[in-house]
Specification:
Number of domains: 1
Distance between the termini: 119 Å
Helix content: 25-40%
Strand order of the largest sheet: 2-1-3-6-7-5-4
Radius of gyration: 27 Å
Protein name: Lipoprotein
Largest sheet: 7 strands, mixed
Number of strands: 7
Number of helices: 5
Strand content: 15-25%
Length: about 240
């Protein structure tokens, strides 16, 4: 009898705690989604910063100062329609990652600063992937936070934006999205580095990487019946 009572109390307590945990976490699903996106951006920023740092080491330019330019191409903060959440967040995260790597990063461009530029593109692939011509697998690198990158993708894959291995293993009948980030290091008008990497992302996250379209301007006009007739002209007698 005592054992049955103990089991009943244990089950009741277990259900109580499980229910509390469910209520606590279900309300924060939107925040978790936002945090996951931010973590993914930080992983991308770390990967790009690592490539920039390695290139500066390779070219023996460790003493150079760099400036990270927004994707809108302006020296300062982009306008409301020139930037988007990913650009603002990625710019800050990339700057932080470069500083953590020991790269001399400046807040405003200086006369002798190298300029870091990045371009972000989202590409949607339909489901009929079997008709495509696939290169050999094994060219992808797994990053943290469930992100996989295809480094230095050749131009034919940039045109098609095809993350081969991961797409094959995570094929979705409705198609999938990929993000292309092209990074450049500029010394005035001279390219010191230019690379294009393809990242496989979840379909639900694609809009984070796109710029918001400006609101459509609608001009309101009255109907013909509502237009006031012109005043009668005076006739000289």
């Amino acid at each position: 009898m005592h054992n049955q009572l103990f089991r009943l109390l244990f089950v009741m307590l277990l259900c109580t705690f499980t229910g509390c945990a469910k209520d606590r976490y279900s309300g924060g699903s939107a925040m978790r989604g936002s945090m996951e996106s931010t973590e993914q951006w930080n992983v991308l920023a770390n990967h790009v910063a690592d490539r920039i740092n390695n290139e500066l080491i390779r070219q023996q330019r460790l003493d150079a100062t760099v400036y990270v330019r927004h994707s809108c191409g302006q020296a300062g903060i982009c306008g409301s329609h020139d930037s988007f959440p990913f650009d603002e967040g990625f710019n800050d995260l990339l700057t932080t990652q470069l500083v953590n790597f020991g790269v001399h990063t400046v807040r405003t461009p200086e006369k002798k600063s190298l300029v870091i530029e990045y371009k972000v593109q989202t590409v949607y692939h339909p489901s009929e992937y079997r008709a495509w011509s696939w290169p050999k697998p094994g060219a992808l690198i797994a990053l943290a936070a469930g992100i996989v990158v295809f480094e230095d993708a050749p131009w034919e894959l940039i045109a098609a934006a095809t993350a081969i291995d991961v797409f094959r293993s995570n094929y979705q009948s409705g198609g999938h999205y990929e993000v292309i980030i092209t990074t450049s290091i500029l010394d005035k008008h001279h390219y010191l580095m230019r690379s294009s990497d393809i990242y496989y992302i979840k379909n639900a996250d694609y809009w984070h990487y796109q710029a918001a379209l400006p609101a459509t301007e609608i001009r309101l006009t009255g109907s013909k019946s509502s237009v006031a007739p012109p005043p009668p002209q005076k006739t000289a007698l």
